[in-house]
Amino acid sequence: MKTSWGYAAWLAVSGLVCVAITIFAASAYVGLDMSQARPPLHGPVHYGLLVAHIFTGTVAVLAGVSQFWPRLRGRHPRVHRAMGRVYFAAVLPSSVLGVVCAQLSLAGLASSAPLTVLSVLWFVTALYGLKTARRRQFGEHRIWMIRGFALTGAAVTGRLWGLALGSLMPGSDGADGLLIFATANWLSFVVNLLVAEWWIQSRGYTRTLPSVALKPSISSRSAQSSASVA
Fold this sequence. Notes:
- By secondary structure, the chain is an all-alpha fold.
- It has helices at 5-26, 44-67, 70-75, 77-103, 109-134, 138-152, 154-168, 175-202, 218-229.
- The protein has one domain (5-229).
- The chain contains nine helices and no strands.
- The longest helix has 28 residues, at 175-202.
- The model is unreliable at 211-230 (pLDDT under 50).
- Keywords: Membrane, Transmembrane, Transmembrane helix.
- It holds the Pfam family DUF2306.
- The chain crosses the membrane at residues 7-32, 44-65, 86-106, 112-130, 142-166, 178-200.
């Protein structure tokens, strides 16, 4: 599929925004200062798990952005595959750490529920993305990577939703602040997945998938045998 200038510009701008917001959010943890942590913590162990989750997630965003650049896939397939390995090596542990950190949240179920669901879905989409790549089912691999990166990008869109909702309810704290935080977390990945599915359907990616199984059925093998004999 030919890449238009508009599509390339959209990829470039959205990629730069993702990278900029991700680096800004992770910068608070570079100095390993617990007092700079945004969520309330149980202690040093909780902080260590959170830092590991954030930095592996940051690597996933940076590596994932490169996977959607058409020229990289077309002209430098080895670099594309190498960055893909980096992406999976970051997502799989980061998603598991995300589940653990969600259970340690001091804000209760309102905070832990969306983060747990997000992390589990993130792990599953990465697993299917890796499996389809190894099986060389590249049509399905593309679809799972779009879904997976939609969840990876939840780290970015969650902050944007938080800012948007916070501007509608300025000065919110306590129960209202928790409501904004929980709503932003749900919207961060639910909306992303809806947009991803719309993108998959609108670009016709499902129509390019093979309509038959990779392994021929018994009847098709018999037909092939008959044809070869004839």
